[in-house]
Design a protein that fits this description.
407 residues; mainly alpha; Growth Hormone, Chain: A; 0% strand; globular
């Protein structure tokens, strides 16, 4: 193995960095959602405008995937990671000081782009540390999903606490603090300076390597199976972010709930995701990632239908809680699989393949809150689950074709 192809040093601190990186993305993305309705009201924003401030983060995350995915297949991870953490810290501090519709939208765009790039760095590091071992890579992505769910639960609990105290600045302050601490960890961790894996020799000039990488990306995106996987990932993003925003809308209509109850309801989906990621790791010991992916897309519409039904019927919090746990469990088992499948198809383009899945999911995450906000404005709170159920049907239709389409 040549010096340019050496793997990053397997130090304990370096191994801990990827989970810490993916933990950060849901912190910046989801902690804002519980405070968004109250903050929007104080700024006299419409439901659609609130949805835009939520979706702005996902739009920027998608843009980060487009730009940094191919770049991470050409340059060391550290060159992307350090600027991303610095931007997150600075913008989060500014959001502590100023809030308006324009500031929130721009700030969410910047933190979304930076945290999207940071999360992609974590995914690329997992692929680098498990080169030549697809099963270890699958387990690595499943473990990342565990930390994503922990980040989501922490973020939503933080947001629910800030919303209950009517102090949205708490969310931005915690984001700034975590970014600063993580920046320090990255500075001292030995991540390695090796050139990332690619489909061309290491001694090829950089300009030519760019051309060869772009050609490989075009071939990858031209695959029919890739297009169906992209569509299913869009469905996953719609389900996740649409359901989170729907919960915020429902909680805003229940003023009698205590702070503890609001926090508990807010973290039910991430708690289910945590359970689902454990089910994912156990299931992969018995069946393939492709079989598990197909079977889960048969189950998740049932959980989404139950969520939509209890929201439409206006049932009590206990009924809503049960459906949220079921929905989160299905999502937790499903979400690591699309990333693992994507990278397994093109391991030589591990960052671009991961970015393609993240980009697709971001499209759904962007559309979800806007669609839910628009539907609620027309049909009332009882319709919050309709978008989520429709997204599961979209994903189900796509999943039927992923493994039968020609590469």
């Amino acid at each position: 193995m040549s010096g340019g192809d050496r793997r990053p040093a397997r130090t304990p601190l370096a191994a801990a960095v990827p989970p810490l990186l993916v933990f950060f993305n849901p912190l910046t993305q989801l902690a804002y959602i519980p405070i968004s309705v109250g903050l929007g009201r104080s700024l006299d924003l419409s439901p659609a405008q609130i949805g835009i401030t939520i979706g702005a983060h996902s739009v920027a995350t998608a843009a980060a995937g487009v730009l940094t995915g191919p770049l991470l297949d050409l340059v060391p991870v550290r060159r992307i990671l350090l600027p991303g953490m610095l931007v997150n810290a600075v913008v989060s501090i500014l959001l502590c000081l100023y809030q308006s519709y324009a500031v929130l939208t721009v700030g969410r765009l910047l933190t979304g782009f930076a945290s999207g790039a940071v999360a992609l760095c974590g995914q690329a590091l997992v692929a680098d540390l498990t080169q030549g071992d697809p099963k270890a890579r699958d387990r690595g992505y499943s473990m990342l999903q565990t930390f994503v769910s922990m980040g989501a639960a922490s973020a939503l609990a933080l947001g629910a606490l800030a919303a209950s105290l009517r102090q949205p600045v708490i969310v931005f302050a915690v984001g700034a603090g975590y970014a600063t601490v993580l920046l320090t960890v990255v500075l001292v961790a030995r991540l390695g300076r090796e050139r990332p894996p690619a489909s061309h020799p290491a001694d090829v000039p950089f300009g030519q390597r760019i051309q060869l990488t772009l050609q490989a990306i075009r071939r990858m995106l031209g695959e029919r199976r890739r297009r169906w996987l992209i569509l299913s990932s869009i469905g996953i993003g719609l389900i996740m972010q649409g359901s989170h925003f729907g919960i915020s809308v429902l909680l805003d209509r229940l003023p009698d709930l205590s702070t503890l109850e609001r926090i508990g309801v807010s973290i039910l989906i991430p708690c289910g995701v945590f359970t689902g990621s454990f089910i994912n790791r156990m299931s992969l010991k018995r069946i393939s990632r492709e079989q598990l992916f197909t079977r889960l897309y048969l189950v998740i519409p049932l959980a989404a239908a139950a969520y939509a039904a209890v929201a439409f019927a206006g049932l009590d919090v206990a009924a809503v809680a049960l459906t949220l746990v079921l929905l989160g469990t299905c999502l937790g088992a499903l979400m690591p699989l699309s990333m693992a499948i994507s990278v397994n198809w093109n391991p030589e383009l591990r960052a671009t393949a991961a970015a393609t899945d993240a980009l697709s999911r971001s499209v759904g995450q962007t559309t979800g809150p806007i669609a839910v906000g628009a539907l609620v404005a027309v049909g009332g709170v009882s319709t919050v689950g309709v978008v989520v159920f429709g997204a599961t049907l979209l994903g189900l239709a796509a999943s039927r074709n992923i493994f039968t389409a020609k590469a």
